[in-house]
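=== RUN LOG ===
request id: a7f3
mode: sequence -> structure
chains: 1
length: 150
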Amino acid sequence: MKAILQRCLDASVEVDGKVVGSAKSGLLVLLGVAKGDTETDAMLLADKISKLRIFDDADGRLNLSVKDVGGSILVISNFTLLADYRKGNRPDYFGAESPDEANRLYMYFAEYMRSLGIHTETGSFGAEMKVSLINDGPVTIEMDSSILKK
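=== RESULT ===
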């Protein structure tokens, strides 16, 4: 499972002109589910993201987590994070999980994040989404559950 975290002042996602999810002063998380990912991958990422100290403390140092600052999270499903671009100029997405299983794990990730006490909203899986972001910093971090398993 792969995630791109972007610290944000404001993030939202629209489907058919209607806002379906948002986050204020928190994180936008783009989440890609790979073939073979499980609930363990979702929990590993969620646990790490919830504790990651990437918010400023009183001294301006990156020393606080999204939970510490009372921030929220917007999770957007994004199969393109699993792109294989090694051959040719058109990436393939054969490494992405099937839509049904990917959606199940995407929703599991969001629900698990909520169980950690963090307000979490989502996009609409499989929909054509328009994502808006006011990046804070910018602070952008790539994460991969396979690295956390080592």
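=== NOTES ===
DSSP finds three helices and seven strands in the chain.
Residues 1 and 147 are 10 Å apart (CA to CA).
=== END ===
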